[in-house]
Design brief:
Blueprint lengths: L1 H24 L14 E2 L5 E3 L2 E2 H18 L3 H17 L10 E2 L5 E3 L5 H17 L2 H19 L20 E2 L1 H17 L2 H19 E2 L4 E2 L2 E2 L14 E2 L1 H18 L2 H18 L11 E2 L13 E2 H18 L2 H17 L11 E2 L5 E3 L11 H18 L8
Antiparallel strand pairs: 1-2, 3-4, 4-5, 6-9, 7-8, 10-11, 12-13, 13-14
Helix pairs in contact: 1-12, 2-3, 2-4, 3-4, 4-5, 4-6, 5-6, 6-7, 6-8, 8-9, 8-10, 10-11, 10-12
Length: 405
Amino acid sequence: MAKEFENLELFYRAELLDDVIPFWMNSDLIDYTYGGFNSSVDKKGKNYNSDKSVWFQGRCLWSFSKLCNTYGVKPEWKLAADNGAKFIKEHCIDKDGRMFFIVTEDGSPLRKRRYFFSESFLVVSFAEYYLVSKNKEDLELAETYFDLMYRLYRHPETDPFKITPKENSEVRQIHNNSNPMVLVSSAQTLRRISKNYEKYDPIIKSIIKDMIDLHYKEEHKCVLENVAPDGTILDKIGVGRQINPGHCIENSWFLMNYAHITNDKELLNKSLNILDWSLDLGWDKEYQGIKYFVDLLDRPREELEHDMKLWWVHNEALIATLVAYKLTGEEKYLMWHNKVKDYSFSHFSDKEDGEWYGYLHRDGSVSHTQKGSLWKGPYHLVRCLLLCEAISKSIKEGSELPELL
C-alpha cells in the first residue's frame, strides 16, 4: 500500500513540476512589460486577449507564492510573484477600496462587480505571498480585505460600491453558498498564517453554521447553491433547484480540513456526506466525468453548459476524495479518487503541448482548446497537484495530514 501512495506522490509532483509549471513559465503568462499576468493564452501558451482578469491576478500570485513556500524559493517564481503583487496593488483596487473584475493590459479599469470574489483571491494570495516577501504589510493587506469581505457578507448595505443587484431584493432575497465558501477558505488560510486563532476560529465556525443550517439538505441528500435567507428551498425557480457538484465537492474538503484541525467529528461526517452526495449526483454514468450543474427535482437546466465537464471540478474531486481516504481509510474514497484520476488525465491533459484543457463536451471531447482565459489559469490544477502530492506523502508515511488551506 505504501508503494501505491509513493507512486501517486511522485506522479502528482512530476505532473506539476515537469508539465504544468514549465508550460506556464514558457508561455505568455507573465507580463513583464505592463505587469501582472496575461489571463488568456491559447493551446500553446500564446496570448490572444490582452484584457486581464483580476481574479486571475490573485490566483497566479497565490500559485507562485505557494510554489516558493512548498519547494523552496526559485528566482523565476519569486520574480513572477513580485510582479503580480505589484500589479494588484497598483492597478486592481478602486478608490473606494473595492476591487475591479477586469482591467486592460496596462491596468486601466474596465469592469467591476458587486460580489467579493476578486477580494477573496487578494486575501489568499497576499497571505501566502507574505511568507515569501516577509513584509508584514502584505499580511495586513490580506487581513484588511478579509475584514471587508466579512463585513459585506454580514452587512451588504455597507458596500461602498453601490449598483443595482441582479435580483429585486424587495421581491426575492437569495442566499448564495459561494459567498460563505470563499469566506471559509480565506479565513482558514489567514488562521494558518497569522496564527490568530482567537479571531478566526469564531468566524470560521459562524460561516460553517450558515453553510450547514441554510444549504445542507439531508432530506434531499444534497447541498443547494441558492436558498432563501432562512434556508427555505425555492423549488419553483431554476436557481433554487440548482446543485453545483463542483462547488459542493470543493466545500467538502474545505470543511474536512477544519474538521480535522479541530477534531470535530460531526462536521467531518457532514463533510463526507456532502462529498458522497455530490459524487453520486454529479457523476455522468453514461459518459463518465462530473457534470457542471444538476437539478434538485431532475427538471431541465437552463444553463447551456450544465452537462459539460470542467477542469476545476475534477481538480477539487481529486483533492476531496484523497483527503476523505486519508481521514477515514474507507476504500470507496480511494476507488473514487482513481476513477476521477483516470478520467481527468485521459481527457483534460494535453499530451502534446502540456497543461490541461478546461472545457469538455459531455462526451469528453474538447470544447475549448485554450489553456488560459478570464476564468481558467494556473490555480485549481496547481493547487490540486501540489495538495495531492502532499496528501499522498502523508498516507505513505502515516504522518499527520498537513493543513490544506
